Each structure stands twice: as structure tokens, then as C-alpha cells.
């Protein structure tokens, strides 16, 4: 799977542009603020209907433009093509088109265009709240386990009902018991899918990390969100009074976490910034391998400011791993000399110079 064509209008400082990227490695270079990251943001919009740079939509839409629009033509593994489109306006409304049909949700985009993002904020995967790691985990489970999404929707509905009852006491006893049963069933199903995914992810992650950096003491474990030795129904029953006092359900898969530790300490407290970046890269590359195994298509990687905080040895090691994924990669950097060479001779590499929001292809070997 790769984007064979992408058209962007109204995204930040980018001039309207249509590109035909390489199916493998694409390097976007230029000065800071030139618009390199904005192109990655446009691809992210196309795959997830949201930005990775801002929770607010207003900064994403170009000044005085009513909306931003991104279209993409996707080359599929079977030789077929798919057409995707996303338009978002200043009121937050969006329209999604997949092969000429209106799509109901952003989940359909995510299914059609799996994206992995590696950027300076990637440290948050280690340093940030458990919610960030749950999102990382569930992205992988979503793409390899078709039954995950219906179970996750059932879980969300049951949680909403239970939390509403905890706050307002509007359910009778029978209804309360029914929603608790549904919550437990959906929770156990979610936990089963997550456990299977982590079991598959760990060895791939460990091999990938070993190719990047030697961190023998690093361990990856999974916390399901409630006591591993007790059934969720028992936990919910014993914590009911406390749940009523705080107005929401404390135990369950909505509290799950991935735990990365170096010896007895949190990895985020021990590892350097460069080591943290390599750990996050290894996690995301390992996810790409699992998606490739589960689907005939492949992830598209968006790598913003790859040279940042990595020395030449680790840059080259990371580039080799990205190359070995045999998927499409978009990489931004200020100085293209860091990344122009070192790829295998049979790997298609395209370079694009970005200046004042204008993107132009560069012939490799030219002085541009």
C-alpha cells in the first residue's frame, strides 16, 4: 500500500500542491517553518481526519480559507487503487469520501490508510499518561483483529451507561446488573485481544530494538486495568461505593497501560532522550511488521525531523529498519545531506524541496 498521488489545499502555509511520491522513501527538506511538517500533517488528516500538531482545527486551516481538503490515490497490494478524500471546515464538520462514497466515520479512513507517526512528540509515549499508550496499543489491535472495534464500541456504551448511573442513580437494579454484565463481557473480550497482540508484539519489538540500541534491562509489560487475580465483576462489586463517590468506573480496560521499565525503574526516568526516541521508533516499527503480517497492505510512516537527537550511527540504523519494512515512508529534515545517501541502490528514493509553502521535486544529485 502506498500513496501514489496526493493533493493538498488550504492546510497551514502550504500552497495548493499535487505530488506523486515514491512508493518507498520520500525525503522532504527545507528550512524550519517552510512547510515540511505541514505535508505530513496533511497525510495524517487523510488517514485519521485529525492533526497530530494541534487538538484545535483552526490553526490547521489556512488563513481566510473556509476549509482544508486532502485527496489521495492509494495503490493497493493487489494492484488495485482506492481514492480517499477528507475535507474539514472551521466549524469542525468533516466530509469523508472513500471510492466515491460518503464514509460514516474516521475509523473507515484509519482502516483504509494505516499510518504510523514518529516525531519529536513521540517521547510522550513513554513519558505521558496511560491514555497515550492505550491509544498506541489499540491502534495495533484495531488493525490486526477485526473483532476489536465492535467489542470496543460495546465497551464504550456500557461504560457510559454505568457512569451515568453512578452519577445520577437513574437505573433500576435489574438494568444496573445487565449493564455490569455487558461491561464485563466486553472488557474480557478487549483484554483477550490486547493480550494476544502484546504476545505477538514483544518478540518483534525486542529484535527491532536490538538493531537500534543495546538496552538489555528494558522490559515491556501489559496491565489490563484491574487486578490480574480477580474477575472484573468482583472488582466492580467491591469498589461500587467508591465509584459512586467519584462518579465513574475506576477498574476496567479503560485503565489499561503498557509499562516499559529499565530494571526497577520507569524507562522514561532512566533513559536519555536519544534512547527514548529509539525505543519509541522500535515500538512503532514493530507495529508496522505486525500490520504487514495481518494485512496485504502496509503502513505508511510519517517521520518528522528524523536526524533530531540521533547521531549518524543511529540514523543509519533507523533508516535501514524503515527500508526493511518495504513500505512507504515520508521523512522531513532540514539538511538533506543527512539522508540522501545510504539507501540500497534498488530502493526508490524521491526528494522534495520545501520553501515558503511551495513543494518541488528534486533530482537526486542536483544542487537544488
Automatic annotation (TrEMBL):
The keyword Cell membrane does not apply. Its main location: cytoplasm. InterPro entries: DNA-binding_RecF, DNA-binding_RecF_CS, P-loop_NTPase, RecF/RecN/SMC_N, RecF_2. GO terms for cellular component: cytoplasm. Residues 3-359 form the RecF/RecN/SMC N-terminal domain. GO terms for molecular function: ATP binding; single-stranded DNA binding. Signal peptide: none annotated. GO terms for biological process: DNA replication; DNA synthesis involved in DNA repair; double-strand break repair; SOS response. ATP binds at residues 30-37. It is found in: Cytoplasm. PROSITE patterns: RECF_1, RECF_2. The RecF protein is involved in DNA metabolism; it is required for DNA replication and normal SOS inducibility. RecF binds preferentially to single-stranded, linear DNA. It also seems to bind ATP. Belongs to the RecF family. PANTHER family: DNA REPLICATION AND REPAIR PROTEIN RECF. This is DNA replication and repair protein RecF. It comes from Metapseudomonas resinovorans NBRC 106553. The lineage of its organism: Bacteria, Pseudomonadati, Pseudomonadota, Gammaproteobacteria, Pseudomonadales. The gene is recF.
